[in-house]
Amino acid sequence: MKNKKETLLILTILITICIIIFNRDKLYEAKYIEPKDTLLAITINGEISTTFPTTNAYIGTVECTTGTGKVEWNGTKWVLTTSGITKGSTKCNATFITKVPTLAEAILANNEVQTPLTTPGKEVSAHTKDDVESKSTSVSSTYQAYYITYGIGWTANGTKFNLTGAAVTSDTYANSYSSLVGKYLPNSSLSSAGSKTAGTMKTTTNLSSVYYIVSATSSSFTYKVISSNKNTTEALLASTSDDYGISYYFRGAVKNNYVEFANKCWRIVRIVGDGSVKLILHNDNKAGAANPCASANNSTSAAFARYSGTTYKSTFNTNYNDNAYVGFMYGTPGSRTHAATHANTNKSTILTNLETWYNNNLKTYESVIDDNVWCNDKINVTDTTFNPWNWSNVNGLGYAKNVTYYGATQRLVSKSGSAGGTGPSLKCNGELSKITSKVGLITADELAFAGSIFATYNRSTYLQENTGTTWWWSLSPSNFIGDYAGVWIVDSGYLNDGGVDGDGGLRPVISLISSTNVTGDGTSENPYVVEK
Predict the structure, then answer these.
(1) What is the pTM for the complete model shown?
(2) Residue 125 above 80 pLDDT?
């Protein structure tokens, strides 16, 4: 019998437990019918239980007065095993505590991975007018005298729109603006949507977008631009490959990807293939709100980093007249090789400003911030037939003042100059494109996966919130043409290239390490909160 007691003892929960003592400083005692010399007590989150938990959403530990024990989930139930049990009464305490998930685990538990409804990079994410943020525009005295073309609705025409019930206002805008509320215009510019000649109707078919009028006065109107005719809302988690494995990214009008971290609010861009999670700033929270993610704390510029006082705009690089200046880090301007031009030697203006903000706001939190490899794709397009903007003397050499397109442009723009290209990618090409830092920017490819495309507005994605009318920088080089270095920017969800000396919004991106634990459900009122 002694040898039998010393062998591995498997205690199942089918045996009746009788609780004898409850004392936080001692083993909780419970007597089983068999074996007669062994006592077991179970607690779940501090409460005595007569059964093990029925799910694996816990961490279980065992303490015994003699020998050792452990509890393990076998796929369907918890199983307790002990070893080294000595003769005589042995008391074991099995403790279960709800497991705090990692951020990646929480995201995957709360979202079904789906196939996108639309093609990233070629189509904007699907949306309805209710998903779109409003925008206002003024109406000058010139256009107040115009007669405006409108429709009472729209129908799909392939990927385009046709207005239905098309008509022209019977009077000028100044005298008929109230009648336009709830109608659709063919353009937000009244120079294109109207005419100074009564009864003149502008084009109402084969439109790339339509403009829903929310409200109007004699000198301005507020509208929503609708650039998807799918008549449904795309808000999902999808997957694609990256340099580390499978990445899971959010696309469209997502409402459950909020993270509170470092007293700021962030939006989740994607789970990286290594399990880290990439976040983009949503609210810099200079007001110190208790929940910076709450919709009550939104503003038209909260998504940008105040790196110097109230300043949140920055150039990408102060200089612009060399291929080198497309770099987040760059080499020697005037060099005669691509390698020397794009060596990661000098910090860009925008990297310097990002690091200033990081050191002032996130330095004390960096134990959970990943040393991320940022993709500043400096691969030059050597195919000289790729010339979507019809510049002369394209040679694609990528140094000095040679006319050059860069990799992201070929992925996001077709040869004919429309949205599409070869398609966005989360894989980084070329060692000079890879820059290790704690803080960076979103790439143009990530913007495309989120729902934006070249040359079309999309104010419905989760990235639009808190940006107002400010355009902001991505990390991706676009081109060097017309003696100007260009980098991809986003303006109201519209992807375009901008000269690096422009003044755009500074919107930091960080990655949290894979082991980061969180509570919450990711909504704005109950965001994922990083456990300290």
Answers:
(1) 0.89
(2) yes
